[in-house]
Specification:
Elements: E1 3-5, H1 7-13, E2 19-21, E3 25-27, H2 41-49, H3 51-60, E4 64-65, H4 66-71, E5 77-79, H5 81-96, H6 100-103
Parallel strand pairs: 1-3, 2-5
Antiparallel strand pairs: 3-4
Helix pairs in contact: 1-2, 2-3
Length: about 100
C-alpha cells in the first residue's frame, strides 16, 4: 500500500487535483516523532478535510484510507492502480487542450 505521510501528504495537498489508488493511505504522523506537520500541513489539511478531522489526524497520527480521503475531499477520485496513470494522463491532456489563456 502507498502511504502519503507527513511530507508526502503535504506535497500532495499542494497539488490542484489529487487522484489516489485504492490502497493509498494519507496521514500526518509527525506527532509520533514529537513534532508538528510542516510545509503547510497544519494550514492545508483543515481546508481539505475540515477542522475536526484535521485535528484528529494531526493529534493522533492515525492515517485515513483512500476512500475516506475522497469522502472528506482530500482526493478527487479513487481508482485502481491500473487505471490511475492512464486516467491522470487523460485528464492532463483534456486540461492542456483548453484555451491557453485559461490554463497558464
Amino acid at each position: 500500500a502507498e502511504y502519503m505521510g507527513g511530507g508526502g501528504n503535504e506535497l500532495a495537498m499542494m497539488c490542484d487535483i489529487i487522484y489516489s489508488s485504492e490502497s493509498a493511505k494519507f496521514g500526518q504522523p509527525e506527532i509520533n516523532l514529537g513534532t508538528i506537520p510542516g510545509a503547510g500541513g497544519t494550514q492545508r489539511l483543515p481546508m481539505a478535510v475540515g477542522k475536526t478531522k484535521a485535528m484528529e489526524m494531526v493529534l493522533t497520527g492515525d492515517p485515513i484510507d483512500a476512500h475516506e480521503a475522497q469522502m472528506y475531499g482530500l482526493v478527487s477520485k479513487v481508482l485502481s492502480a491500473d487505471e490511475l496513470l492512464p486516467h491522470a494522463i487523460e485528464i492532463a491532456e483534456k486540461i492542456a487542450a483548453k484555451s491557453k489563456v485559461t490554463t497558464i
